[in-house]
Prior knowledge:
The chain is an alpha+beta fold. It has two domains: 11-103, Phosphorylase Kinase, domain 1; 108-294, Aminoglycoside 3'-phosphotransferase, Chain: A, domain 2. Helices cover 43% and strands 14% of the residues. The protein has helices at residues 11-21, 62-73, 111-114, 118-133, 136-143, 157-166, 173-185, 232-235, 239-249, 253-274, 279-294; strands at 30-32, 40-45, 49-54, 84-88, 98-102, 107-108, 194-196, 205-208, 211-215, 222-224. Strands 1-2-3-5-4 form a five-stranded antiparallel β-sheet, sandwiched between helices. The chain has a three-stranded antiparallel β-sheet with strand order 6-8-9, with no helix packed on it. Strands 7-10 form a two-stranded antiparallel sheet. Helix 6 (157-166) runs antiparallel to helix 7 and helix 10 packs antiparallel against helix 11 (279-294). 39% of the residues are buried. The model has no long low-confidence stretch (mean pLDDT 94).
Amino acid sequence: MTADIRPAIDSALVRRLVDRQFPRWAGLPLELVDPGGSDHVIHRLGGELAVRLPRHRGAIGQAEKEAEWLPRLGPWLPLSVPVPVGVGRPDLGYPWPWAVTRWLDGEVATVEGLGDSPDAALELAAFLLALRRFAPEEVAVAAGRDGLAVRPLADRDRSTRADIARVAGVFDTAALTGVWEAALGAPAWDGAPVWVHGDFHTGNLLTAGGRLSAVIDFGSLAAGDPACDLMIAFTLMSPGSRAVFRSALGTDDATWARGRGWALTTGLNAYTSYAATHPRIAASTTRQITQTLLG
């Protein structure tokens, strides 16, 4: 397999995979969810299930990771999370494990809907605090396993500086460099490892009835420094709700600085990768980068 393989995935393939590996669901209607995600092709299966096939190699471990950890974490969290009900195996030319989960109703959260909401900020802080408190002994074990430890922010230094250079003329590169260097220079996390979602941004939140209802996409679930989950403060929140969020979390200056760094590096990476061809991503990452500069 080449590193950049992207298998062809259509509804006919998904139908055959489900019917062959999970015959109890063979009679359920199958409907493509469009748009899906950048990492998965998603189909709704009947009224209660979702089928998710990774689009690329970077997402191939998610089905098994979520099947292992979400049944343990979910009951302790104040927002709904995906409930795995099956892990499919490679078959019919499709090369990777894939997932069947319970369907979660809701709409993707938006800045317009929740960005100024102190209630949403408090709910997200409560979610992260609950995630961090879960079973410390299991977190310690997970932190020692390959693929489940949070990578140091410094590992992204070269790519982030290259991305800053690429956006010269669009953003204030001196200001971006200042935020990045402050993040790198902040004291490292010296507490015990905690669970982090790892990709905690607006697109991975669902709402129902105008309120937060669920957190999805735990493919980057890991253990270590909680700063990376602070990116939600810059992808969703305005300065006012951000202050509420930070206060509820009790985040110290060093962790906040590292969190700004995570928001900056992920925003820049998405902007330089997709903004030229995806106007929606261009708008959301422009906002993310701009909010990061505001602090």
